[in-house]
TrEMBL record, chains A, B, C, D:
Official protein name in the record: NTP pyrophosphatase (Non-canonical NTP hydrolase)
SUPFAM superfamilies linked: all-alpha NTP pyrophosphatases
Matching Pfam families: MazG-like
MF terms (GO), sorted A to Z: nucleoside triphosphate diphosphatase activity
Keyword Ion transport on entry: no
InterPro entries reported for this sequence: dCTP_Pyrophosphatase, DCTPP
């Protein structure tokens, strides 16, 4: 993850994109890419969506959309100085208190 | 990242949430959390947004929203069988060909 | 619709919110409200979602989210000088050519 | 607005799209279209975004995206049996109580 963050930062720097990569702009770009991901799934039935990765072309498009979402999320977190893995673990710590396990 | 994926999977399994965690539902949840992240930034000027992490309360909320986005993204990728780091590197390989570096 | 547009404009003007209501900020707010709408539906099965308006509390929340989405969409269109009804009819004219009717 | 709702309903019926137009699917499609709208604005400065309708090509794309958002919002409301104008006025009634006017 740190390596991915560094690569995306270097990629943006090499293209002088830092000026565009403000928190607001990156958050908008993230939402735009999530919209493209939704578009891949929106007309599928739940069953079709559950088997979507068996269709090679759809699978490639979905991997591409997941990558775009990840890249903007990682870049936004980098610009804001947030460690995504660390903050996710902290949130899961909270969630474990909020949502008790099922009793079986 | 693999550890985070495994923890989120165990968290969902312990609560019998697998039935809710379909690709469509998780994509909707991801979009919902991105919406909450946007809401943290939407009325700020670009300058205010650039300094938002200096405000401790706003910073805590933004870390929490970034965590929620990450958790649903990681969970969705896990359900779809996609390695987010690998697919992001593959996309960056493509992007390096599509977008030439700035000449300086 | 024109009456609604005028009311929302007067509402914003009376609160000196014009300075916040830039196209980018309103587009972010629109996406944020759509996220809240998704959150109302995300964990429901298709059948549950199809009957959601029969649950009075859920129906009230959904009407409220649809109102928030509409208000920001109408406001954004007003700021951009776009007539939503007219542009929607123009798009439907195009869509009628793109998507032929089912033959029965 | 009622005319637009009726036209969109007839358009969907003529193509046998009713089966796809579930509340969840339409909410996802709405979010997808909002994502495309955000993408038109995301890299612009606030000043550029404020003047975006003076660029004829960008203006056409934005009108098209606003139309797509409107069409899915109107269709979703129709499927849910919600009158968007009425519920927006009811929300503005509430908002007028929640947010007092500026004192000048």
């Amino acid at each position: 993850m740190n390596e991915l963050t560094a690569r995306i930062r270097a990629f943006a720097d090499a293209r002088d994109w830092g000026v565009y990569h403000t928190p607001k702009n990156l958050a908008m770009a993230l939402a735009g890419e999530v919209g493209e991901l939704l578009a891949e799934l929106q007309w599928l039935t739940p069953e079709e969506a559950g088997a979507v990765m068996e269709d090679q072309e759809a699978a490639d498009r979905i991997r591409g959309e997941l990558a775009d979402v990840t890249i903007y999320l990682v870049r936004l977190a980098d610009v804001l100085g947030v460690d995504l893995v660390e903050t996710s673990h902290a949130k899961l710590d909270q969630n474990e208190l909020r949502f008790p396990r099922s009793v079986r």
